Amino acid sequence: GNSVKAGNLDKEKFPPVPKPEGKIAGADEYPLSLAGMGVNVYAAELAKKGEIKGMFFYNSNMVAGYSNPKYLEDCLSNLELSVAIDIQMTETCQACDYVLPDTSYLERLEVPEFIGGKIPAVSLRDQVIEKIHPNTKPVDEIFTELAEACGVGEYFPFTVEELADAQLRTVGLTLDGLKVAGTARFPEKTFKFGKTPTWKTPTGKIQFSSEACHAAGYPSVPQWTEPVASVPEGDNYFRLIGGKQAVHTHTQTANVPALMNISKQYNLDRVWINASRAAKLGIAEGDEVEISNDEAKGTVKVHVTERINPEALYMPSHYGCSSKDEKTAYGFGLRQMDFVPFRIEPGYGGICSQEAIVSVRKVGA
After folding, report:
1. Residue 87 to residue 127: CA distance in whole angstroms
2. What is the pLDDT of residues 307-334, one digit of tens each?
3. Which candidate, 272, 244, 273, 241, places its Cα nearest to that of 259?
4. Which among 250, 292, 333, 359 could bridge 297 via Cys, Cβ 3.0 to 4.6 Å?
5. Domains in the chain with CATH codes
6. What is the mean pLDDT of residues 60-76?
């Protein structure tokens, strides 16, 4: 689809920030990681080795949601400085030296979002309620004051309101106007089918092979690769798989009472097990089962269904909160990552979160 984006801004008022000289952690070791952004869990691994001295987290619950929490907590404990910026006391906040309390999105103005599509648009998320907790600050203020404290405040001599208005004026809009409209569309940029599009690939066409993969020493087309962990013989062994539920976003929303009420009302913390495998183990719908491996052990109720592979046991990835300060989420369900060994996928840098084997038994059996 077509898109609209902010034009060039006054460099004196909005000075460009120079590119950091340091190497991005994991960019070389994992050349196929997303857009050259590096690998955050590899950065944590370097912290454990003492090669990274400080880490800042913004709106990121790495400890609970990225891989084995015990390992990642240990990585953070080796840092000389660890800072978390968040709106709730997550497991990552608990593991850090300092927590800088952010406001919720309802309590602050954010820069406009430029949206591509058939009809491009610009939308604005504005402040709609007054700040609730007096010791919190909008994240733009936190970043600006951190920059000043670090001696680079000259790159941020503006407010978020000034930046938003300047961006909008480059596309013929104003901040005051978009605060009223909420969203502005650009019908003159409507996408129309015409000539065959040119894709952003080396050939300009849709490609089924990747030159980047080949250059990095990996297969250029999808191939079958044996799993790192295989399910051993025995009726009670399963491959633990996890994934999101539509009502939650990773671990970030488990402490929201309205959403957690849905989880509790519909028993969304249950693990899924194949009906034929459940029958062999004497497990029925709603039974409590014990899940265990070398990493963790816990009990939870089970959902028996035909809609899952017989070798797999599904566990939702939102629950099992271990931070007592998250009173709504604490103690509900199990946490998938507790059972996942720390393992980074070669080349690509992803966590091998579906490479855990667990045993299952009915509680009381």
Report:
1. 16
2. 999 999 999 999 999 999 999 999 999 9
3. 244
4. 292
5. 34-189 (3.40.50.740), 195-223 (no CATH), 237-362 (2.40.40.20)
6. 96
